[in-house]
Amino acid sequence: MQTPSIGFTAISARHVAREITRRLYPLHTEAAELSAQIAARQQAEASARAAVAEAVAGALPGARIEEQYRRTRIIWQHDARPPGQQGPVQVDSVCVIVGAFGESVTVEASGRPDRVISMLAAFAQPRRE
């Protein structure tokens, strides 16, 4: 987008107004249209990403969702110890990053192997509506 400039001389106010109308208004219209296109694209991106994030969070009850610039992080943690059991803490966790437009998903899972394998298997199941 070009940067407009108007030089002022001893010409009349009417001439200056005519030059502003001729040079600046078309650029303003172009900038407003570009701004609207960018806003629409950003809204579409956020909506697509939110749809994927909701689907992932639905598979992880109690997950925490954090919005970041052009991506969404979903964090789920679960204390794997049976209630009342003493001993070291064993936490199963999943961290999912949903990229721009929801077109990429990165999953990092940690915990006991039997739990992690079952979590990953649950993600591999086709979604039933």
The count of DSSP E runs of length 2 or more, i.e. the number of strands, is 4
Main beta-sheet strand count, sense and barrel state:
4 strands, antiparallel
Q: What is the CA-based Rg, rounded?
A: 27 Å
Binned, the helix content reads: 40-55%
Mean pLDDT: 82
Number of helical segments with 4 or more residues? 2
Give start-end ranges of low-pLDDT stretches.
none
Q: Distance between the terminal alpha carbons, to the nearest Å?
A: 47 Å
Strand content: 15-25%
Provide the structure class.
alpha+beta
What is the H/E string? HEEEEH
Which of globular, elongated, flat, extended, rod-shaped describes the shape?
Answer: rod-shaped
> Going across the major beta sheet, what is the strand order?
1-2-3-4
Descriptive notes:
The protein is of the alpha+beta class and 129 residues long. Helix content is 45%, strand content 22%. The protein has helices spanning 13-58, 113-124, and strands spanning 64-68, 71-79, 91-98, 105-110. The chain has a 4-stranded antiparallel beta sheet with strand order 1-2-3-4. A hairpin with a 2-residue loop joins strand 1 (64-68) and strand 2 (71-79). The radius of gyration is 27 Å and the shape is rod-shaped.
What's this model, at a glance?
The protein has 129 residues and is α+β, with helices and mostly antiparallel strands. The protein contains two helices and four strands. A hairpin with a 2-residue loop joins strand 1 and strand 2.
Topology (elements, then pairings):
Blueprint: H1 13-58, E1 64-68, E2 71-79, E3 91-98, E4 105-110, H2 113-124
Antiparallel strand pairs: 1-2, 2-3, 3-4
